[in-house]
Amino acid sequence: MIAVRFLPAAREELLAAVAYYEERQPGLGARLNAEVEHAVATMIAYPAIGSPITRNARRILLNRFPYSVVYRASSDEIVVIAVAHQRRRPGYWRRRT
């Protein structure tokens, strides 16, 4: 079984985005969280499915939200590096890899 670990900064990004959407419309934050959970489940099943964006990182775009989940996969672990908004500060998370 592959373990999944969120970097603290990635967890904070997810929580902030969920809170933002939930504040705008009740239930919307939960939908964002569900999409991220679906992306993580996909990564577990198919670790190499994400588009390579650096030598060590891949990303999965979310369907209904302008976010991507940036991650690094090894044989026994997936590390979520960022839950990154697609239109804000591109590449800011690169220092985390």
Structure write-up:
With 97 residues, this protein is of the alpha+beta class. The chain has one domain: YaeB-like fold, CATH 3.30.2310. It is 36% helix and 27% strand. The chain has helices at residues 8-24, 28-45, and strands at 3-6, 51-52, 58-61, 67-73, 77-85. The longest helix has 18 residues, at 28-45.
Keywords:
YaeB-like fold, 97 residues, globular, five-stranded mixed beta sheet, alpha+beta, 36% helix, single chain
Overall mean pLDDT score? 93
CATH architecture: 2-Layer Sandwich
Order of helices and strands: EHHEEEE
Strand count, sense and barrel status of the largest sheet are: 5 strands, mixed
Q: Would you state the CATH class?
A: Alpha Beta
Helical/strand content category: alpha+beta
Helix count equals 2
Strand order of the largest sheet: 1-5-4-3-2
In total, how many beta strands?
5
By CATH, the topology is YaeB-like fold
Q: Evaluate the radius of gyration.
A: 13 Å
Query: Based on the structure, what is the oligomeric state of the protein chains?
Result: single chain
* Poorly predicted residue ranges: none
